[in-house]
Amino acid sequence: MVDAARGLTIAVPKGRLFSEVGELFARAGCPLGVAEEPRRLVWEHEGRRFLLAKPVDIPVYVRYGVADVGIVGKDVLLEAGEDVYELFDLGIGACRLVVAGRKEGRGRTYREVGPQALRVATKYPRVAREFFASRGLYPDVIALSGSIELAPVVGLADLIVDIVATGRTLRENGLEEYETIAPVTARLVANRASLRLKDEAIAALTACLEAALSVRPPDPEG
Ligand code: PRP
């Protein structure tokens, strides 16, 4: 069945999702054909073309049709607001988008946490603004590109909006999760024109991925 998925260009995220995506696609009979994250950013394998991009850029490659489909976290999708079609939840890369801050602020209302103008540091300014606006709050949102946990530790911000996976980064910086904004997993997304022009190939890929997800991966402990 997976042969029908030939001819697709698939945008794959570099970084923490890469190995999980590689494993899932191999189980689905659609291997990436590389053992680990390559330096080469475009390659072909078994009639499919793969692009390796930063997760935050995947919706852009898909939106412009450079890739027919892509794999991207729901956090990135919520922030990007790009017009791509979300096909289905791959269930991998689970984490959550949260509001967090210093331990001693826990239990206070957001107004109490930032008595002057509340400052929120984040890689997700759109998500943060929408979340706080839904609470009637319009904080000063400070856009950063990484190591977000540093901001409340050194007094740049009162709060952060960021993803939490194990919680280790928060703990090791004396921070605590105050509230979950949204659970996050990786999604398969498609370009809207590709959905029409390559509907059979995309349906075949989706079916193979769904079949792979319905079977538990072999237990490495035996
Ligand atoms: C992410 C996120 C947190 C961390 C959470 O950062 O922004 O900093 O992972 O993971 P944990 O709950 O398992 O500790 P990432 O590693 O993507 O790098 P970044 O700091 O450049 O955003």
UniProtKB/TrEMBL annotation:
Entry GO MF terms: ATP binding; ATP phosphoribosyltransferase activity
Enzyme class name: transferase
E.C. number(s) listed in UniProt: 2.4.2.17
KW Glycosyltransferase (keyword) present: yes
UniProt-listed InterPro entries: ATP_PRibTrfase_cat (IPR013820), ATP_PRibTrfase_CS (IPR018198), ATP_PRibTrfase_HisG (IPR001348), ATP_PRibTrfase_HisG_short (IPR024893)
Domain ATP phosphoribosyltransferase catalytic, residue spans: 54-209
GO cellular component: cytoplasm
Origin: domain of life: Bacteria
Pathway involvement of the protein, from the record: Amino-acid biosynthesis; L-histidine biosynthesis; L-histidine from 5-phospho-alpha-D-ribose 1-diphosphate: step 1/9
Subcellular location: Cytoplasm
Gene Ontology BP terms: L-histidine biosynthetic process
Swiss-Prot/TrEMBL catalytic activity: 1-(5-phospho-beta-D-ribosyl)-ATP + diphosphate = 5-phospho-alpha-D-ribose 1-diphosphate + ATP
Keywords linked to the UniProt accession: Amino-acid biosynthesis, ATP-binding, Cytoplasm, Glycosyltransferase, Histidine biosynthesis, Nucleotide-binding, Transferase
Record remark on domains: Lacks the C-terminal regulatory region which is replaced by HisZ.
Similarity section: Belongs to the ATP phosphoribosyltransferase family. Short subfamily.
Complex and partners: Heteromultimer composed of HisG and HisZ subunits.
Its job: Catalyzes the condensation of ATP and 5-phosphoribose 1-diphosphate to form N'-(5'-phosphoribosyl)-ATP (PR-ATP). Has a crucial role in the pathway because the rate of histidine biosynthesis seems to be controlled primarily by regulation of HisG enzymatic activity.
Name this protein carries in UniProt: ATP phosphoribosyltransferase
